[in-house]
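Q: Hi! First time doing this. I have a protein sequence and I read that you can turn it into a structure. Is that right? Here it is:
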Amino acid sequence: MKASKRRARKVSEMRLETIYLVHHSHTDVGYTHDQPIVWELYRRFLDAAIDAGERDLDTDADWAMRWTVETTAPLLHWLQIASDWQVERFLRLAKAGCIEVTAMFANLTPLCDTDELIESLQPLHRLRTDFGLEIRHAMNCDVNGHNGRWWMSCWMRALKGSAWQSTSTLVGRRSTAR
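A: Yes, that's right. Below is the predicted 3D structure, encoded as structure tokens:
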């Protein structure tokens, strides 16, 4: 049997045993809306996530609310305008594992070079030291064409040992070459 047929057979015999869903709101500054509208929408998303997270705070059930802050740019804006009480609620949920903050400032274009990417991660220091957030993961969604290995090396340097990174490309009509 040829090697390619053996590989195809092995792949077809593999079973998908677990699917992980990441509950988050996608950050698309400037594409769907201008910044002021995105900041307002994200304020609403964060407030709703806090309310839902508190509702399920006392359960470890798989169905309990978990939410991911996909990028730090809207979170940084929210932290400037949120009341101390809202920030305290957010931090309590983050420490309990109900809300997770990921590392990327925004969903960045592949046109960023290494220095620009690392510079975009500078707010992590403030989020970790001023707010005590543990940021171990990075997401970059809806960006086609970047080199996964290059981004991963940048993240690993900037995050000092990120546990994982997640990338997803835009699939559908907009990504089809014409």
